[in-house]
Design a protein that fits this description.
The chain has 229 residues and is α/β, with parallel strands linked by helices. Helix content is 48%, strand content 17%. The protein has helices spanning 18-29, 36-50, 57-65, 94-104, 107-118, 133-137, 151-164, 171-187, 209-222; strands at residues 7-11, 32-35, 69-74, 77-82, 85-86, 126-130, 143-148, 200-203. A hairpin with a 2-residue loop joins strand 4 (77-82) and strand 5 (85-86).
Length: 229
């Protein structure tokens, strides 16, 4: 799609609030939404379901190129289908998240999903949530934000989410998993997790969701991407 279509990128580690904030900003603007992490989670889930080894780069890339996926917007949520099955909950498990981090470190998989992500860029605009949206996928975005929070706070948020879903979890185990995932994402050779040179870094550890949304809305207005409300 034309590069004249505006894009706001929200990158950062898991648990920083990217998903919720991206959805709220997209709703406020009436723009499209890309949850790039969902694509990697879907590739990982497909690999787990098909018995594909997570270190088999060629097989993983082949899976990524032919993913049969669909995103269905329903009320305040998005239903995700993989090969016709509703996997909205399955892609959010810790097992899938850990596998997605491994899959995302494979250069051939990232290359296979790159154009698929760029195809989400359609009028009137796009809010892109991920880990390399501002550095690689939409490097020309007029507003790039890197959301972060302490590992302890992100583990606490995930713990509360799982509790609300009726899933037993260990806070200490979640913290270790988050720290390991951060290290893997930051140290991978292709598109490592880091802020773009022209990104604004926002630490959400002590901020509420409305406060973060208001902050981003101010930045959008300053750049002429939306009118003041």
């Amino acid at each position: 799609m034309s590069e004249s279509v505006p894009v706001v990128t929200l990158d950062g580690p898991g648990g920083a609030g990217k998903g919720t904030i991206s959805r709220l900003i997209a709703e406020r603007l009436g723009w499209h939404l890309l949850d790039s992490g969902a694509l990697y989670r879907l590739a990982a889930l497909a690999a787990l379901r098909h018995g594909t080894e997570l270190d088999d780069a060629e097989a993983l890339a082949e899976l990524a190129r032919h993913l049969d996926v669909a995103f269905l917007a329903e009320d305040e949520a998005t239903r995700v289908l993989l090969e016709g099955d509703d996997v909205s909950r399955d892609i959010r498990t810790e097992r899938t998240g850990d596998a997605a981090s491994q899959v995302a470190a494979v250069p051939a998989v990232r290359e296979a999903l790159l154009q698929r992500q760029r195809d989400f860029r359609k009028p009137p605009g796009l809010v892109a949530d991920g880990r390399d949206m501002g550095t690689v996928v939409f490097a020309d975005a007029p507003l790039k934000v890197f959301l972060t929070a302490s590992a302890e706070e992100r583990a606490r948020r995930r713990y509360l989410q799982l509790q609300e879903s009726g899933v037993d979890a260990s806070l200490s185990s979640l913290l270790k998993e988050i720290q390991a995932r951060d290290a893997r994402d930051m140290q991978r050779s292709v598109a490592p997790l880091k802020p773009a040179d022209d990104a604004i870094t926002l630490d959400t550890t002590r901020l509420t969701i409305p406060e973060v949304v208001d902050r981003l809305t101010e930045w959008l207005t300053e750049r002429g991407l939306t009118s003041a409300t």
